[in-house]
Structures are given as structure tokens and as C-alpha cells.
Amino acid sequence: MPARASTRATRNSSAAVSHKSSAATLKSRASTTSRVSSAAVDIPDETPESTLRTRICAIFKDAQKTTASHRKLVVNLRKLHEACCYEPAARHKAPSASDADADFDEADFNPEFTRCVLRAMPVKKSEAVGEKTVRFVGLFLRHASDKDNELLGEEDADASTMPETPSTRLITHLMEAVLPLLAAKDKYVRYRATQLISHIINSLDAIDDDLFQKLRQGLLRRIRDKEAMVRAQAVLGLGRLAGNQVEAMANSDDSDDEAETGLLEKLLEVLQNDPSADVRRSLLVNLPILPTTLPYLLERARDQDAQTRRAVYARLLPALGDFRHLSLSMREKLLRWGLRDRDDNVRKAAGRLFRERWIEDCAGVNPAPEDGKPAEPAEPSFDGLLELLERIDVVNSGVENGVALEAMKGFWEGRPDYREAVAFDDQFWETLSAESVFMARSFNDFCRAEGNRKYESLVEEKLPEVTKLAFFLDRYLNVLVEALRRVNSQEVAEDEDEEDTVEQEFIVEQLLHIILTLDYSDEVGRRKMFSLLRQTLSIPELPDEVTKLTVDVLRDICAPDAAGEKEFCSVVLEAVADVHDTIVDEPAPDNDDDSFHSARSDVSSDGTPTKSDKRAKGPELSEEEARAKAIKEIMINMKCLHIVQCMLSNVEGTLQENDHLVAMLNNLVVPAVRSHEAPVRERGLVCLGLCALLDRPLAEENLTLFMHFFTKGHAALQITALQILTDILNVHGSQLLTANPTLLKVYVKALRSGSKNPEVQGAATVAVSKLLLGRVVTDHDTSAELLKTLVVAYFDPATAGNQSVRQALNYFLPVFCYSRAENQDLMRCVALDALHALYNVREGLEDDDADVDEEMASLNSIGACLVDWTDPRKCYQPGVPMDAEKKNVNGDVHLELAADILDKLNGNTGSKCPRRQAPRNYELTIFFFFFFCTEEEKKVIALLLGKLYVSPASSEDKIRGLYEGVSLAVEENLLSDATSRNALYKIHVSLGKIVNQLTEQEKGTRRSISRSVSVSVAGDDRTVTEDSILTQEPIKEEEDSGDDGPSNDTIRQTEGESIVEELLTDGE
């Protein structure tokens, strides 16, 4: 804007632009632009109306309506700002209405602008006008700063200090007025002030140093604000300040390193510990990405808030750039955390990141055209895909339960261009690498499993036939065996050879996974594959995973009927005999009949003798040779047992009907269990357990053996024995548990072994949960004992560090109780006994001077959980959705629990209150209630009475019986403290209402029956007699029941009396 001399006071800037004087004292109203009251913001005192105020207010009014007009309004407001701050270029024309703004200067504009902004400070967060006003202010200040910088020209472009302009003075004036509001008492004023400051910080490119420090200190105080919305806005501004300071530190050696480090440390602490997810998420996307902050940012992938976790994959990682800068372990963790997240949106964001952004980093993208149009998507690059698989270490992450399979499943699903373009020609199969074979395996799995097999034709078209795949498998098997033998022959294996062996093993595994899914209707291909796998299984050096997959494929090739199963067993046991014959000819000296090494390897179908029968006795061996021979024998025996274990996992028939299995059991498994070598004995135990699943008499004979292994074995062996026993019970039924009382003690002992063996306790918890949830254990006493032990273990502070126990029970207990009404009744039977046991645990902690409330849940919380688990309204009912509101369901289980509580309370007071007259099952509960109950425990269980659900749909006899017991308890003042009495009165009133309704319904029914009988057959002697009997019955019942106690006055009262008033009067 051209400048000219003016009669007003002017000052020359470095850009030779004429300004109006801003050094003059502001008018009186400017001194009152910022006042903070104790409750809210004070608006400056009103001054006489002016055209400037009218125009500024009109602009702010329009800005609150919609954000679409903000750009136009900013231009208009900027014209006013220039008119007040800059001299006009010329005044050749006569004064007009448009020149009215020339009568005002910068000292008038700044207070009016600040006055309008302060009007938005008390606006609540839910009001959209506050948000629009803040956005408008930020947009205007950014526009004004840019215009002022343009007017300055290039002369001050490289100046070391920030030039003073009208916009900088306006920002300073506004911030000086808003900064005190950060400490206002009203939360909305603090919120809007913090929001405005943070928005302005993020809108501007530069701020004066003095103002920067003031804003930094003010916002730092707000990160400890009690309101989460204030903290969230504060970290928005501080994140930008921290980023700017990092840039300044990189460009200057004089920066305040300690101040920067302190700011980042505080923000990182907030990121880790702030209870509000909004605050953590705001910091996640606003903190600068530095080597020091990146681990903390990526850590939010395990945040408890789903939206924060999603922000890591949808915003942070895309903004990070090339993923190859991350370490290999971090890439694998991020993929695993994201693709296995419990929230579906997080899983989708992680899958999208992998198939869209990470593949672009490896494959590259097309350059954007010069006309500004978006770049076209790049053509599928399989070299890039192979590099991506290499970058996530597919050799380790591509195994079973690895994350690479899940990642590629989403990749093939979300990238149809790669799905259609992939090709597997002969050149591909002849030059397989770990990445390429995994790509083929993942594509095969996706096409055969996803989309209701609609992609199966695609994979059949692209994969070669069975015969050709058998040829390629034979080729890579030979390479693997040669590599294994070369490594075994070396005294010190080289790293390159080991890596090559691992890669070759991975290639063979993936080929077997593909072969496992093929169709063997082609007889030529089936025979070729069958012969190859039979020969492969006889190789002693074959790795365990390859052996397992080979056995699985053999079972798939054989027919699924009994004859196919016998053929499968015959082939596998022949391979076992071949492997066992590789043991050196010299037998171990002094072998007795019970030794595993004395067992003949004639486990094939026809008992073919092996080379071990023809071995001749050789010269004595040296100590080293004998040791090497013993080790080799152990390894061969372990290999044979592993093949047998894989075979038994694929057998479903009966043991006695398969001669091959009987021979294998007697000649291989039993000698292995009797072996003196611990590894052989333990693997033999697993094989014996698998055999026991196929034959019930064998399982019954060896139950004692399995329990012995649990009692005498180490932790890993105990877990194995527990798993075998649980599988036997699941297959053969709980009769074995009933016939062997010692077996129950094994489970109880395992559940209580937390301090010594937490892994055993975790395995036992899962095992018992399966037995109870699957209704394998049907005996009431046994089920009750196991369930009580689980409940005590769930709340026992000794299991606080055993996450496997806590997580298993956290799922099991609600599911078990809510799945069946019988399960809720079982929980009701053990609830009070478990509560008593936990009360003793808590007493023991208090005796040890431990922080009880810190280590263990309160008894009231435990009681609330027990009541909730037995709530009949939450129990599953066939045909009724679980989320449907259930009213008037049968609440007998809570009535029974209330009766149990009364029995327990009456057991210590010597009360003569009779038990309920309604029939009940005392098989288990009577035993539970004969222990002593202290006053403190009485208070805990008495409070449960007020939390029980009393339903009119419950059994009438149980309602009336419980009502009598509660009435007598109220009459005899069974409970002394006020809280317990209130709980008793509550259930008393609830039961009284229902009993009164039942009585009224019964009276009305009898009147209608009497009236209908007397009218229909009037004059008949027999009917009159019948009528008299009907009308006398209720009177007789009232007289009989009236002798039981004063509680039955309710039944005889007149209709006008209120039962609630009578009960409350009795309570007083």
C-alpha cells in the first residue's frame, strides 16, 4: 500500500511503510479489555457506539453462523484492520461513507476486536458458535500476518528478529487479555481460553519470543487441569511449541536444551499417564516424531482406548514415512498388535496400513502429474511384495500362529489387482525363496478359505497339478536333507549354513501346507505324492515340524474310513521301524527287559524283523564313543516317538480294533514310559495319553500312572499330566472322576499351587473351567468343590500376579453362571462358603500388617459379584436375546440364596426361628453353614439381602416360606447394626408386597369359583355341600397359618390397610 505524509503522527518502519502511531496511549476503554472475575470472564465496559464497533460486531455475528463464509469475512475484517493501521494511498476525492473508518486508528481496532473475542469465552463446549468463533479468529490472524509480511517485502525476510507489525501487536494485545483467563474458576472459560491460544499457536508461523514464553508457561499449568477438555486443548498447543523448539535446537547452538527437554518429558509423562483418552490421543498426533519420542508414541498401540490405538495405525504410522526405518522387532510387534486387536476398527486400520502404505514404500508410487491431478495407482510389483515380506521377517513370522499369515490374508482380500496379476509359472517354483513360497502359500490359503470358496477356481487355475508339485517337493527335500547333513557333520556350524538350513526348512514346510489342501482325485498324482512322503518320513534327520506336516498329508491322502486309517498306521509304523533301525549295531550293555532300548522295533503291521535283530556284539567302546552312541540312541528314540505322537493325533478309531496300534503300544510306547531317560519317558507319556483316548480300559488302568507323574514330576511334566487327565475325562466321561476320588485331589492341589508353580495353576484353571463349562463333571459335590476353589482363586491376592489364572476366570465365571440356570444354582450353593474362605484370607492379610485394600477386593465387592453371577435376569433363556430386557423371570435361585443367608445368620444366635417350610435341598448347604460366623462377616452377608432380586414369578411356596423366615428375623431383631437391618427391611417389604398380591389373587379366585358353583346348580344338595366346603377353606387356612406368628396379620388385614405401612411400623 503506497504511503504518503499525513497530519497524523507517523512512524517509519524498516520497510518504509507509513503506519499510524501505535505508541499513543490507548483510550480508557482499552485499559479494561481483560478482567477476570472469580466465576467467569468480565467483558470490558461498554463505550459509546461507533461505526467501527458496528462493522466488527456484524462480521463476528456472521462468522458464528457458518464456516463457509469465513474466508470472505476475514477479507472484510482485514480491510477494516488496514484502514485503521495504515495511511490511505490518496485522498483526492471528497470524504464519503467509506472513509468513516479513517477516523479510527489501531488503538481503537485492537480493543474492539479483543472485546468481541472475549464474548466467546464463557460459551459451553457443546455450543457450536464458540468453535466457529475460535476458528474465525485463528484464520483472521493468520491472514493478517501473511498480508503484513507481504507489505514488509523482502527486506526483512532474513532478519534475525521478528519485525513488529500491526498483526503482531494485535496478537500480543489479544493474548495479554486471554492469558489470565487460563486460571479462571469457570471450566468453560478455561476451556475456551486454552482452545483459543492453542488454535492461534497452530495457525501462526512465528510468535514473539516474550509472548512465546508466556504462552508456554500458561499452557504448562493447564496440563494438570482437573477438566480433561482443558488438558486436551493445552497439549494441542504445547505439542506445536515443542516441535518448534526442536527445530530451533537443530538450527542453533544457543537454544535452551534443558527447557526443551523438560517440556518434552512432561508431555511424554502426560502421554503415558493421563486418564483421559482424548488427551493421550491429542498428544499422539501432535508431538514431534523424534528418536526420543518415537518409542513412547508407538507404545500407544497398546493403549486401553480403541480410538487411540486406531490413531496409531491411521495417523501416526502413515505420517512417519518409510516403515523400513523401524526396527524389525518393532514392525512385527506393530503388525501383531494391530491385526490381533480386539476392536474391529483397529484391525481394519492395521490391515490398510500394511496393504496400502507399507507396500508403497517397497514397490514405489507413480510420480504426481504436473497438472495437480492425483497420481494413478502403481502397477502391481511382486518384487516389492517380496521385499515387504522380507522386511517383516517372514521366516519367523510366517510360522503357525505368526502374524504374517493374517497380514497376507488381509492383503489378498484388499488388493484385487495383486490377486489377479499373480502368476506361478515353472520358473517361480524352480527358484523358490522363503518369501516367494510364503506368498504362494498365503494365496492358496486365502482362495480356499475365504469368500465361501468363490476364489477356489482362481487358485486351481494358477497352481500346478499334484504330480508337478510332488516333483518340486522332492527337489527341495533333497536340498534340505543335504544341508542338514552338512551342518551335522561340521564340528562348528557356520552362521551362513545355519541360515540356509532354516530357510530350506521353511520352504519345505510351506510346500507341505499347500499340498495339504490339494485334491487327490488324480490317482497318478496321489500315488506319486504318497510314495514320496513315505520315503521322506523314513529320514531320521527330518525336522519335527516337517515330520508333523508329512504325517498330516499322509493321513489326508489315505481314505477317511477304517481301512484307510489302518493303511495310514501301517505306513507310518513302517517308517518308524526304518528310523529305529538307524541305531548303531552295538547294544547298550547290561540292558534289562524293562529298558526302552531292549524293545524290538517290529512295530510294523506284519512284525517284520529289523536290523537290530541281527546285530553282532562288537568290541568295547571308549567312554566318548559310548556317550555319543547313547545320545544318538536317545535322539532316534525321541524321533520315533514324535512320529508316533503325530500319527496318534490323526487317529480316531478304537485301539483294540487296530493291530498296528496294539503292537506299537506294546513294543514302543510302554518301553518308552519305563525308560530311565527323562526326555524319552516324558514323550512316551504323551503317546500313552493319546492311546488312552482311543481305549477306555487302557485309560482306567493308567489313571494312577498319570497322577503319579503329576505328583512326582516337575512343572512341565505336571502340566502335561493335567492335560492328559483332562482329555481323558472329556472323552470317556466323568465316571472316571467319580470312581477315583484321588483324581479330584489332583485338580484341587493344582489349583492351589499358585505360589510354588504359577504355570501349573494356570493350566489347572483352564482344565477345570473346561470340565465345568462342558458339563463333563456331573457330580454335585465334586462340581461344587471345584467351583468354590475357582471362586476363591479368582479373588485371592496370591493370584494377582498370575495373569493366566485371572484372565481365564474372568471369562469363565460369568459365562458359566449365565449359560444355565443349573450353573447359577451351583454358584449359589458355594457362594457363602467361598465368601467365608475369602474372609479368612483377608483376616490373614490384616494379621500380616499388609495393605489389605490395595492387595485384595473388599468383601462387599466380592459379595456383589456373587449376587450378580446368580442374578436370574442375566441367565440365558432359549429363544430370548441376551440383550433383551427381562421382567418377572423366575427368581428361585435368589430366594434360595436369601434362605441360605438367613440360615447362616441364625446359626450363630441361637434363634428359634424355624427354617422355611418350603422344601429345599440340604445335601451340600447344611455342611457349609455349620462354621462360626463373626459379627463383621454377618454384616457383609446381611447386606447381600438388599441386593437380591425378588420376583413375583418365583415359586409361591418359596416366596411364602422365605417371607415367614424374614418376618421372624425382623421380629426377633436378628441384626443389630442399622445397615444390615435396612437390607433386611428392604427384602421384607419386597416379599410382603408379593405375598399380599398372592393372597388377594387367591381370595378373588375362590370368590369367583364359589359364586359360579352356587348359581349354576342351586337347590342340589350335593352342590350346596360342595359350595360350603369351598367357602370354608380359606377361613381354615387363615386360622392354621395364624398360629405361626404375627407375620400373618398381613394376610388377615382388611383391604384398606397398607402392608408396607405395617412392615415399616414393625421395623421401627
UniProtKB/TrEMBL annotation:
InterPro entries: ARM-like (IPR011989), ARM-type_fold (IPR016024), CND3 (IPR027165), Cnd3_C (IPR025977)
Any GO CC annotation of this UniProt entry: condensin complex
Stretches the record annotates as Disordered: 1-43, 584-624, 1023-1068
Keywords: Cell cycle, Cell division, Chromosome, DNA condensation, Mitosis
Gene Ontology terms: biological process: cell division; mitotic chromosome condensation
The Nuclear condensin complex subunit 3 C-terminal domain, residue ranges: 639-949
Transmembrane segments: none
Polar residues bias (residue ranges): 601-610
SUPFAM superfamilies according to UniProt: ARM repeat
Biased composition regions of type Acidic residues, renumbered to the chain: 1058-1068
Residue stretches of biased makeup (Low complexity): 1-41
Cellular compartments annotated: Chromosome
Compositional bias ranges of the Basic and acidic residues kind: 611-624
Entry similarity comment: Belongs to the CND3 (condensin subunit 3) family.
PANTHER family reported for this sequence: CONDENSIN COMPLEX SUBUNIT 3 (PTHR14418:SF5), CONDENSIN COMPLEX SUBUNIT 3-RELATED (PTHR14418)
Protein name: Nuclear condensin complex subunit 3 C-terminal domain-containing protein
Organism this protein belongs to: Neoarthrinium moseri
